[in-house]
């Protein structure tokens, strides 16, 4: 759907420019662009929101921000309000709104996770409101399925010091603003799916930084291994480092 809308916009814009060049109509390219780019912001914002609803990635935070930003710019073009591109900094109170909605959503998920925890043998730290560091680096600590959350702080997991059972074990980290540092021994097969809305990711030889970055990596022996770890990491802001030692 989004692709077709963009295609129609580009075709219409190209046709309008051609008609202007042969004298059929008289438009200002700059004036037309002032209407076009706010609509593009709205389209991409809507797409991110729709992808999030359908569990296909996306981000309701960035999606709603770009959608609102595009609407305000378009309202300015039609003289409903006064709002220029440089006024984007005036939207900073939306950050407070987003954090508030994040708390509401997290409190609902916390109740669900506590119910699940009574039926499953795994570590499930759903204290999203907490701030601070969490470390797993004691000698011979036992690796079990984990679901870890923090509003802010650091996660440090040293699997080289752990006792890892011979099975497939998932670890999920889902937080607002944290730094994640994971040490993996070379003899352990693992797969990592890492996403950060704003920040950087390093996994083996791969590195990405910026906005809405994702890295998927697995060791060459992952598929055939019996003893292996699955890492699912998603941050709104921060850094993710998965290092082999």
Secondary-structure blueprint of this entry?
Layout: H1 2-21, H2 29-53, H3 60-77, H4 93-117, E1 123-125, E2 134-136, E3 141-142, E4 146-148, E5 152-158, E6 162-163, E7 168-184, E8 189-203, E9 206-218, E10 228-244
Parallel strand pairs: 1-4, 2-5, 3-6, 4-7, 5-7, 7-10, 8-10
Antiparallel strand pairs: 8-9
Helix pairs in contact: 1-2, 2-3
What would your notes on this structure say?
Helices cover 36% and strands 33% of the residues. It contains four helices and ten strands; from the N terminus they run ααααββββββββββ. The strands form two sheets. Strands 1, 2, 4, 5, 7, 8, 9 and 10 form an eight-stranded mixed beta sheet that branches. A hairpin with a 2-residue loop joins β8 and β9. α1 packs antiparallel against α2 and α2 packs antiparallel against α3. The chain is elongated and about 75 Å long. The two termini are 46 Å apart. About 7% of the residues have low confidence. Keywords: Membrane, Transmembrane, Transmembrane helix. It holds the Pfam family LiaF-TM.
